[in-house]
Amino acid sequence: MSTVRSKKASFIRSYLVKKYDRLLDSILVAEEAISSSSSSESNGDSGITQKELIQKIAGSLVNASIEKFRLEKDDIDTLSTDYDMDSDSSLKEPASEVIRDINNEVKEHFVDLFVDKLISRIISEKLPEREHISLDQHEKALTATLLANNMKTMTSKLGHMMKFQDSVIRLITWRNPTGTLLSLSLFTFICYYPLLLMILPLILITFGIMVPKYLEKYPIREVYSITRKSYGSPLLLRLLSVTSPDEKDASLQRDKSAEFRDIGSSALVVVNLRDFQNMTSSLIELSEVNAKLVNETLGFEDERHTTVIFLLCIASALLLNLTSPFVNWSLTLSLSTWLFFIMHHPQIGPRLDKFIIKIRRLTSNKFIGEVIKKFDIILDEKPQINSVEVFEIYRQGIVPGVWKFFLYSSNCFDPSDEFRRAKHAPPGVKDLEDVKPPESWLFDPNSEWEIDYNVEKWSYENGLDPVLTIEDEYLCDTMFKRRRLTRRVLK
Amino acid sequence: MSSRDVIKETEYHARFSICGSRDSSRILTGDVPFEIIKALSNVYPILLILDSWLDCILWTTGDTALNLINLLLVCISLKFAASDTTGSIYEIRNLYIESAIFFVLKLLSFQFLLISSIYYVNSVQVDLNRFESPTVDEIVSTADSVVNKLRLIHSQVTNLIKIENFKELILFCIVLSPLQWILLQFVQLDTYLIFVVAACSLYHSNWIQVTMRVIWKCIYVRMACYKHLKRYISPKLKNITTRQIWKSKMTGRDDLHSVTLRIKNTANINDELIKTLLLNRIGTGESEEYLENVSEKELLQVECNVIEFEFIENQRKWGPNGWMPKLLPYEGTNFTFSSSENKTLYRYNETPIIFQEYIPPNYYWLEDDWTKKLWKYYDTKWSFIGLNDSPECFTRSREWNRRAYSIRDN
């Protein structure tokens, strides 16, 4: 009996599912059609009106909820049909439990679905693609879930990178003095035997990565000495220790390392997040500095400055080219690096700075009062010259033949004009004084607005309807007449 | 779901034992005579210095960079000590700056090493005075660590000169000396010296140790090494062919068991009967029970020769492929033939499956198939581990036995 009933139930269910599917499909199709038509209408306009935005949000909300419903329904269907096959009442409970589990774990969150839909709705046009090595590769669409997941994994994986950064900083700042010395010696070796540069990556891979991994798997060294107080200290470490000038910093450093060892996994996530935040902000800073360098310092913003830099670069390149055969580069490079690092040693650096300041004070007295006038660079580059146009538009008065001034506009406002067809006034101003030159250009002060009398030519060049009549310098249609004003602009 | 949780909760893991092999410190915690304590405390600074020096040699210090810098300084000062061409052959473009710098560097590094070692000895003394005096335990554990490190070096040195035969050692030296002389013709003395010192002091670093271990995994390296050392490690086995085995078995006296069967002449004498009778006879020793009621006249005497063959199957574990018949080239073949006559093993290039096909015409196999014994498991050098496979085992072997018989014509 029970099997017959269950069969019946499953049949009804499948019928209903099919029926609702059709309904859902029709809703989706209709919704899609509306959105596509609205987007094609608004294509001419760059922005999205508020009405459209609301429409789109609503559309994606409906879409997301339908999809969510469908996903859930599919799972319940498959599971319940599986369950139908062996309709044993004892299996009922675990099956429903499983369904609930899956719904909780596997399903995408509704908000995620909604946001994804919304993104794809609002930015309906095709996004530009980045270059890929393989042509078959395509950019993945922006989804909130993937982005969030990536952020999550990135923050958890960031530790290694940060550790590497820490070790590099420790090397640079002499906080690991023997390491710094060793790297300097290595650099010297590279300077003298550049072939090492080819060998070094291999050495790094084998000894830096593979040997520690091997030791992790097969530890070869017994621990001989039980931890005890360490007596005595090598002279080198005593000489290079960073502690004395700013003892506080060093102790702070030690505290930090202690904290890292004791930290729990949950706190580690926060630490990684913090690191990520700081990394992104420093990345932004870096790009800002880079932009400033490219656009201002090297971008002829301050023309004299950039010109000097350009000349200096060329001159030093030439000089280097000529003198380089007579220079012992190995010695120069290694010695300068050693000197640089020694000068930045925490014990030597501050003293050196003080010394330099003292010397400056001594020498600067001599040059006081001497104003260095910079007459070495001649800035006589011809500016860019261009001309701008504006249309002075008149409107037909009530009495024929009487025209009233309408406005100045860059739009010609002929009968085929978009604004004219939409029965809107074109963007423009009432006063000629309010017409401004294009961005970063300026009007030639030695020129005035000039009327273009060659109407035929400009109307032809602007692709205007040749039927329009010409009266003096005006081009007329039934409602409006306009004339073209031009002016020189400089940059 | 819940049952799995319960299992997780009841899972209990054993702890590593902390009792090491070293318990000498415990011996001294009892009553220790004052003189010994005094002697220990006097010797403590020396122990400490020796310990740190051994740490440097064995690379057990935490600061490997410091070790490397020290090595670099040693090498530079060696260069200073060994070279006599300082600054004479530099090019003009260097304007002698480079040579001057290097000269100063060499001089300084030697002096720095000297001063640094004196400083270290001094700093140990200063620290000992500064800290509270060490306990007996500390002193003993330091001594223990020194002894352990020395023991390690000792074992390695003896390993290096493992050639037990004195003649071999002399031969080794005689071969190496001209090689060294030739090398010195091409390489400058200081470079050679620096290379030797660097190689010796880097030997115990993790890098070299791991590199050696990884290189040792390469089959060609092992072959190259064993080509020379093979005779010290395992006796070279002779090859034997199927024909030789048969020949030796049929002519050898020890192997040939002659068994006399007495069969009722009315009985239907066939292979099966002889086989069962032989098996019974060899197995139990008393096969003629059921012939008691039969008179001597009715009996037919059948004399048989029985030969026993013993092969040993060898296998090696090849990582993820598991147990494979392929052995290392110097290890011999998959099957070795064990001769009972002179108790020696021979390399056999075929398998017993092929061997059984080449049975001479008048011989028959007594058993239907080879009887295979249990596997015995060995480590990679074929020393016995046990009867069960474990991660420790890399080779295994088992015996294959089978007997053949022939009826002697009378």
UniProtKB/TrEMBL annotation, chain A:
GO biological process: peroxisome organization
Domain TECPR1-like DysF per the UniProt entry, residue ranges: 143-487
Subcellular localization, as worded in the UniProt entry: Peroxisome membrane
Membrane topology: Multi-pass membrane protein
Key words of the record: Membrane, Peroxisome, Transmembrane, Transmembrane helix
Transmembrane domains' residue ranges: 192-211, 308-327
GO cellular component: peroxisomal membrane
Domain of life the protein comes from: Eukaryota
The keyword Ribonucleoprotein appears for this protein: no
Protein's name according to its UniProt entry: TECPR1-like DysF domain-containing protein
Organism: Kazachstania africana (strain ATCC 22294 / BCRC 22015 / CBS 2517 / CECT 1963 / NBRC 1671 / NRRL Y-8276)
Gene from which the chain derives: KAFR0E02100
Automatic annotation (TrEMBL), chain B:
Subcellular location: Peroxisome membrane
Listed name of the protein: TECPR1-like DysF domain-containing protein
Domain TECPR1-like DysF residue range list: 33-402
Keyword entries, A-Z: Membrane, Peroxisome, Transmembrane, Transmembrane helix
Transmembrane segments: 100-121
Main location: membrane
GO biological process: peroxisome organization
GO annotation, cellular component aspect: peroxisomal membrane
Pfam families: Pex24p
UniProt membrane topology term: Multi-pass membrane protein
PANTHER family: PEROXISOMAL MEMBRANE PROTEIN PEX30-RELATED, PEROXISOMAL MEMBRANE PROTEIN PEX32
